[in-house]
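Hi there, hope your week has been kind to you so far. It would help a lot if you went through both lines with me. No rush at all, and the record is pasted right below:

***
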Amino acid sequence: EMRESDWSSDVCSSDLINRRSNGLLQFVENYRKLQRISKPQFEDVRIGDLVADLQHLYPDSIFHYEIENEDQRLLMDRSQIEQVLINLLKNAQEAVENEEIPYVRLTTHLSSNKRDFIISITDNGKGILPEVMERIFVPFFTTKTSGSGIGLSICKQIVTLHGGTITASSKPGEKTTFSVVLPV
């Protein structure tokens, strides 16, 4: 004879097993995403066009776009670099959700030695603590309750495949800047 208390503990354990297996499937899927980044298909891209597309996706007045030279051209896999910038803009937008006067600024400029092209995204969110900063590009590390922790590691992988670098700096309580540096 099965008592009700036995039955309810079985239900709880099957819920737990389901959650665990779903979590595991999610992990495996995210791991595959990290492995699946294809070799960039380079094309000649006009920076003004790239940023115009981002402006259509993020037209909100909190977003400010400052382009040094719209006619600057770079060799890149446009969809991959767009994916990186969309991820950074989305993160910045989330970072400023609770700010009184939120802003996110995307700037582009050529480095002084004319060898690097820099795309920076700055937000005035609460910032990233130093102990968190050193782990933000590590796969599966996240501070978000519903985050997978693969966004920034995919960004880093894509930028590296382009021969570039991605860096972050933050003044907690003031601002955070992510910079994508691509070879010209």
Q: What stands out?
A: The helical segments are 4-35, 47-57, 78-95, 130-133, 151-161. The longest strand covers residues 175-183. Strands lie at 43-46, 63-67, 73-76, 104-110, 116-123, 165-171, 175-183. The mean pLDDT is 87.
